[in-house]
């Protein structure tokens, strides 16, 4: 279990002020390890020193529990540059995953310098690309300009295309913190349609359950 944060549900999804209903925001990262030993990490979470979430990130201890050290990670994919997704990338001004290429979309990195401490490790991509053996990133913009989702086999890690299971039931339900709400809505509709048509397994960043089957 990772850290989580409580937010008002109606206000966050419908923009309506209300005291009722609470949404517990979870923060999930994903570790992929193939048979050849290539290790890919998708997002680095809120980080161990976050002050805005009620509990620090637990990525490194959870990584250690799998028998891996930060230096064993070959590829880090950052879905987008919000601090709950890249917060564990840098510690004391130094890269945490010093042997890893760090994959980010050009449209995402152009507007910010937050990854400067890992600039020597950056692998900047434009749109869809295979970035590790069998691991494909796809540009899914709207929440942020260069938001990307990640696919391997029949598994898709959706980042912040969806924030709550209610958006799987109705992808037209918006999230107030999407940067470009119209584009985010279009991306969400397109992606949910394709995920359902293909019966894919979802990896979610913020749902209570990290894995959701659509098959
Ligand atoms: Zn997020």
From TrEMBL:
Keyword list, A-Z: Hydrolase, Metal-binding, Zinc
One Pfam short name: Lactamase_B
Keyword Acyltransferase belongs to the record: no
Domain Metallo-beta-lactamase residue range list: 26-206
Family: Belongs to the metallo-beta-lactamase superfamily.
Listed name of the protein: MBL fold metallo-hydrolase
Source organism (scientific name): Nonomuraea mangrovi
